């Protein structure tokens, strides 16, 4: 008797393998915000460090303050006057370098970007209700002039501190002084040592006498109000004091403390 073959069992839908469930890839709103800020921070650090490295070797063509002053004059209906030329530090009088150290930042060659004693004195002076005075170093002023806007908010001061650290590490003292003397406001529409010496004394930046250099340094708190020549008695007293303090600065050595 021949064996009969059993029919193969029919495949049911239950025996079919189920497709793998798709993983949800949609991020929540919180995750999107988090990644946005991470990317924003990475861009900020990359651009800020890159710009500081770039300007270590390339002259700074203009600063935010120069643009702001031009806009202010335009809105006030005044003539837009702008005088700025880059001058290598080797061609800037050592007298001017000593004068700005004596008047603006006596410990410039020794601090790491911040003079905490000067900040403490400024805080106590302002707290007593006296005339507002600042404690910013040349390094801080340079960071603000080149990379930031004018203002007194904590946010801007925080950015100023950040850029101050960067230029102290990447530029060093000599480059900071070179950029400072080529970017600061030294008169109404007059920026940098080259333009200032031509404007005030009709001579080049390498030939300034001690008193002439002190004249430029003396007006830096408000260069649009004060004059380096034909000065008021207040500025003349400042000049004399700066000349005396220049002697205490001594020989400038940017490569060693």
UniProtKB/TrEMBL annotation:
Residue ranges occupied by any Glycosyl transferase family domain in the UniProt entry: 83-246
Biased composition annotated in UniProt, kind: Low complexity: 1-18
Topology versus the membrane: Single-pass membrane protein
Pfam family, one: Transgly
Subcellular location(s) per record: Cell membrane
Superkingdom of origin: Bacteria
Pathway: Cell wall biogenesis; peptidoglycan biosynthesis
The enzyme's E.C. designation: 2.4.99.28
Coiled-coil zones: none
Reactions listed under catalytic activity: [GlcNAc-(1->4)-Mur2Ac(oyl-L-Ala-gamma-D-Glu-L-Lys-D-Ala-D-Ala)](n)-di-trans,octa-cis-undecaprenyl diphosphate + beta-D-GlcNAc-(1->4)-Mur2Ac(oyl-L-Ala-gamma-D-Glu-L-Lys-D-Ala-D-Ala)-di-trans,octa-cis-undecaprenyl diphosphate = [GlcNAc-(1->4)-Mur2Ac(oyl-L-Ala-gamma-D-Glu-L-Lys-D-Ala-D-Ala)](n+1)-di-trans,octa-cis-undecaprenyl diphosphate + di-trans,octa-cis-undecaprenyl diphosphate + H(+)
Signal sequence coordinates: none
Residue segments, region Disordered: 1-25
InterPro entries: Glyco_trans_51, Lysozyme-like_dom_sf, PBP_transglycosylase, Pep_trsgly
Primary role: Peptidoglycan polymerase that catalyzes glycan chain elongation from lipid-linked precursors.
Name listed for the protein in its UniProt record: Biosynthetic peptidoglycan transglycosylase
Taxonomic lineage: Bacteria, Pseudomonadati, Bacteroidota, Flavobacteriia, Flavobacteriales
Gene: mtgA
């Amino acid at each position: 008797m021949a064996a009969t073959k059993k029919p193969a069992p029919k495949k049911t839908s239950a025996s079919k393998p189920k497709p793998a469930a798709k993983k949800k890839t949609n991020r929540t709103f919180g995750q999107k915000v988090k990644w946005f800020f991470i990317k924003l921070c990475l861009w900020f650090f990359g651009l800020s460090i890159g710009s500081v490295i770039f300007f270590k070797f390339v002259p700074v063509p203009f600063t935010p303050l120069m643009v702001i002053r031009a806009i202010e004059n335009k809105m006030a209906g005044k003539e837009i006057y702008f005088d700025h030329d880059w001058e290598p530090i080797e061609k800037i009088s050592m007298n001017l370098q000593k004068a700005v150290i004596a008047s603006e930042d006596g410990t410039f060659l020794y601090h790491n970007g911040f003079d905490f004693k000067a900040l403490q004195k400024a805080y106590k002076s302002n707290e007593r209700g006296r005339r507002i005075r600042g404690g910013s170093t040349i390094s801080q002023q340079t960071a603000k002039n080149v990379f930031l806007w004018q203002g007194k908010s904590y946010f801007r001061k925080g950015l100023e501190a950040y850029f101050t650290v960067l230029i102290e590490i990447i530029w060093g003292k000599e480059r900071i002084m070179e950029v400072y003397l080529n970017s600061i406001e030294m008169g109404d529409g007059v920026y940098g040592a080259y333009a200032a010496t031509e404007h005030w004394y009709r001579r080049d930046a390498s030939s300034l006498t001690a008193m002439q250099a002190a004249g430029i340094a003396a007006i830096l708190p408000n260069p649009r109000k004060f004059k380096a020549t034909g000065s008021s008695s207040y500025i003349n007293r400042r000049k004399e004091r700066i000349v005396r303090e220049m002697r205490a600065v001594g020989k400038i050595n940017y490569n060693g403390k």
